[in-house]
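Example protein was shown:

_____
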Amino acid sequence: MIRTLARLLVCVYAMLPGTGSPVLAANIETLMMPGPLITGHAKYENECQKCHKPFSKARQNDLCLDCHDKVAADIKKLAGHHGRIKDIGELECKQCHTDHKGRGHDIVQFNRETFDHDMTDLALTGGHRTVRCAACHKSGTRYRDAPTDCYSCHKDNDPHRGKLGKDCKSCHDTTRWAKVAFDHDKTDFPLKGEHKRTACQGCHLNERYKDVATACVACHRLADIHGGRYGEKCGDCHTAADWKKFAFDHDTTDFVLRGRHGKIACSVCHIKTLYKDKLGKTCIDCHKNDDDHKGTYGKKCQSCHREDTWTRIAFDHDKDTDFRLTGKHRKVACRDCHMGDIYDEKTATQCIACHKKNDVHNGQQGKQCGRCHNDEGWGRKIVFDHDLTGMPLIGLHALAPCEECHLTAGFKDTKSDCIACHLADDKHKLRLGPGCGLCHNPNGWALWRFDHNTQTDYKLDGAHKGLDCHACHTTPAVKDVHVTQACGVCHRPDDIHDGRFGQYCERCHVTESFKKIKSLR
């Protein structure tokens, strides 16, 4: 009651003539204050009109919002914390923020533990719910000044280094940063097959997202086992579903693959540039190195051989020639009789022409062997891209440091033959010659394959199959490997006849066992 009376006196005094001094009125109001202002409002302690409108409580909110204009803007836009408070227009500021409680009083009454962050412009979802307040609300700044966009907080964690812009939420969400929601199919390169499981950086090197090449070879050049020989139109043969599955149908070309040809790897025939070098279609074009006859039987391989198997002979000597093969002749190798050019040299049909070396009579009985012998048995009844250089890097070569092969800056001087680099690794000590590629391949030094029967003119059979290469190849070969095929060269120490029966051991012995003698019947 005393306070009310005092206020009444102040008002009356202020209306008296000559006593309307605002300073005097303010001093009296200051004396009548219910308590000191908080620290933030202390500078207005003598300016009551900043916060109070005499005889108008409704105007007090307007005075608060005049100073706190950002809060006023939030309320107007129904944004921010204040803009989301239910019925905010009907509430008075002092209902929550009561002043005149003293300098140290907290009129905000903010409780971090109970504050509902969903009442702000940034509702906390996913991983944001477990983040400490101080991680976003830096010391010395207002809570409302904390940024609400992803990039402002996560700039230092952006693996794209800003190259994808600042709209992080277009791909990521707050559940897990590594979870990506970007739909690549909406670009001009939809992801199909194995591309769907490829990491982004697998194609977008150094965070490059603009002007990224979409041709297969742009990404797969290093994986091109053809070394660029088949051109850059990978899609003609391969699909994104499986790189190892081929979509190309060779039968649409003018060379239909039949028999064994349908199972052969492309690289066996296409050893040169696919679109530049025209590939021959005759047998000899590919099988010249497999020709055990060394060209002496001409180039019409199909006359004798078939596509299902090279070793199966289709030639019928009995029907296609005037010399029927009977008796032991049926098992004789062609080259035993046909030692010259089959088309230029006419093979004699007389026995003595082939068996002169077997003539134990030394010509004393003439040349008509058939008078006493027959073909049932002589004694019977009397087979900077490096890939564009002359040596494509494939296999382990693709991983080798440059200096491993190029010892000096003279790159063109570097030899491309295997032995030039791998001489120290050659456990054969050149006994198998310098052509390492005949057996080994760049995928691994220990991965090797050599078929002595088809790649040389000396077939390994019988006991020869299990022999170590070095058993026959005993001396270094600087260039080509030349090993005599004569039995006596290797088996001289085993010759119990001491040379009395000559050097043609195969006349009596077989490769299955030195002790096994050919049947004379």
